[in-house]
Amino acid sequence: MPAHSTPGLIPALVLPYLAWRVYRRFHRNVGRQLVHTGRLVTGIVIFSVIAGLLLFFSLFSSRMMAGVGGGLVLGALLALVGLRLTKFEVGQPKPHYYTPNTYIGVALSLLLLGRVLYRMTLLYFSDAPALSASPALMQSSLTLLIIGLTAGYYLTFNAGVLIRSSRKA
Prior knowledge:
Elements: H1 6-29, E1 33-34, H2 37-57, H3 62-85, E2 87-89, E3 97-99, H4 102-125, H5 128-133, H6 141-167
Antiparallel strand pairs: 1-3, 2-3
Helix pairs in contact: 1-4, 2-6, 3-6, 4-6
């Protein structure tokens, strides 16, 4: 295989995996869900690490810091709305279930997916001069805003579900 065809092969390998992950995320965001404490805590830890790393690496750029910080704040506010719209079912003594708002979860997933696909399109299908004019993947304040929005939402939402389900126990 010639070396010049390898970059075209990368999206062909990455896109099916990305599609499978999006399907799994949609499946987890829709419908009644068991309150699984370990999964919620793991989500809180992972999104806290992501938020911390994004904030750390954007310390030297006010534009990047504004993108990450704004995304985290907007995501937390959206999660508070999402928690108000979430239906909680308390089992006696257990299990507890919750049904998150479908529209918020799907909208966040589509927003993140759209941005990732847009950035992949820029990286893989643009010619070299246009590529050098666009910022690197993690140097776009809009990309960081969307990642921060997602991290802030899931961090706050998972914490809210844990708090709400422990109060109802």
